[in-house]
């Protein structure tokens, strides 16, 4: 085993080898143990913030209205006496100690360890961004600012934990999975558009500039991937994965789960089957080519995503069950050494009452909070069930990392969720720092983080050898 693979902490393997060893020890008269069927149950909790709560880390207008609720949705999976939790939250991001707290509380509710819990945000920009260490820094600064509503967050976590406990009480056996893919048409486009002058142009989530709308989609993953848990052919829950920033129009203080949540709930109402949606590696992917920021565009994007979910469900094929394996690995990334991202520079911004609130929050408090915890690696995880693997990544990773995971999987069905612990910000390619554009300015880690993340993904995806 290579030193790199030796870092893997594995749990959740089928324990057939234990049975063989016990039979040999007890003698020929011992009866082999009968493995219990794995079980699953879906959960959901309303995590909508109250009127007046900060949104997107306090960078935009606070909540003035609620168009539709925000949800924490997921599954509890039980196999071989261990439980695992996958949770998708309609938040912009959950960062640093706040992300750890969420995982720990769900673990306690499920009767498991936090290492077996994945919490991923969907990254809507009409939703909270939670970072308690940053909020504490802002509270102690010469001119305090709100970036998140911690009282609301703790209640949201408590409500989600209660939903997890309820799910544990109604776990059902499942005997197979079904997997399917479908292209989502006219949604995803790469945000980084190379201009004729060799400079990066930014195609924001809502774009009205004709030249940017006319530019090619660029590198994207058009496929929506769906994993269904089945009992005798009956679906118990479906997980969907698609890579694009999810927002249509935003920054207006109106709470909504946006295109992804609206499509998800529509399909759930149609099927009467729990639908859980995870945003994939979308750091450089938006709907900008197909979205002008109008209500009409939101409706069209929602329709296209819902159609993709239905098509992936219709295309799904049952697969035989196989070993269930949970992998975790630490991810430590090199820090940024350029001056705007040093600890001294960040503290100066935090304490500068003349800086804009968004600058003090982002390049001040949140950057200091990340630097303060940078010696503690982020924990990544993956869940494999037979030939299916789900990878959980942090921050805002470029789509290249999703494509890498799928390539490493060979013939496996690989789905990837981004937006776990968001403390690190964007996870770019090394080349992006030299090319410029928006994403490197919102990354708190150094250019060579690309290679640390690639090695971590390699450890999380089972080898076909």
Topology:
Layout: E1 9-11, H1 16-26, E2 39-46, E3 65-66, E4 71-79, E5 82-89, E6 93-94, H2 96-110, E7 117-121, E8 129-130, H3 132-139, H4 150-168, E9 172-173, E10 176-183, E11 189-190, E12 192-194, E13 200-202, H5 210-214, E14 223-231, E15 234-242, E16 254-255, H6 258-271, E17 275-279, E18 285-286, H7 295-314, E19 317-319, E20 324-331, H8 343-350, H9 357-373, E21 378-385, E22 388-392, E23 396-397, H10 399-408, E24 413-417, E25 426-427, H11 430-435, H12 449-460
Parallel strand pairs: 3-16, 5-7, 6-8, 15-17, 22-24, 23-25
Antiparallel strand pairs: 1-20, 2-4, 2-9, 4-5, 10-14, 10-19, 11-18, 12-13, 14-15, 20-21, 21-22
Helix pairs in contact: 2-4, 3-9, 6-7, 8-9, 10-12
Compute the number of strand runs: 25
Described by the principal axes of the CA atoms, the overall outline is: globular
| β-strand amount | 25-35%
Largest sheet features? 5 strands, mixed
Helix content: 25-40%
Radius of gyration: 22 Å
Which residues form runs of ≥5 with pLDDT under 50?
1-34
End-to-end Cα distance, whole Å, is 13 Å
Task: Report the mean per-residue pLDDT as an integer.
Answer: 92
* Spatial sequence of strands, sheet with the most strands: 1-20-21-22-24
Structural category is alpha/beta
Can you count the helices? 12
